[in-house]
Design a protein that fits this description.
With 79 residues, this protein is an all-alpha fold. Helices cover 53% and strands 0% of the residues.
Length: 79
């Protein structure tokens, strides 16, 4: 008796839910055999392709520097 015949004979007494579990597992095994898709190349001009374009060459300002700059900005704006 072949493995497929044994499997068929075994699932004859399974409930519909159990048969669905066996089916999902078989589909999972089938997917593992398929070649993995090639990674997609991000086309130029997309937002994702622009990631990091506005990165500063110097380190980011500290919280204290940002607070001081913002305070100065508000002081000048509302004088």
């Amino acid at each position: 008796m072949t493995a497929s015949e044994k499997l068929y004979q075994l699932i004859q007494n399974f409930s519909e839910n159990q048969i669905n579990e066996v089916l999902h597992f078989a589909e999972f095994l089938h997917q593992k055999q398929l070649p993995s898709p090639q990674p997609q190349v991000i086309p130029p001009g997309t937002l994702t392709g622009l990631r990091g374009i506005a990165k500063r060459p110097e380190p980011a300002p500290s919280d204290q520097e940002l607070q001081t700059d913002y305070t100065d900005y508000l002081t000048q704006k509302y004088q």
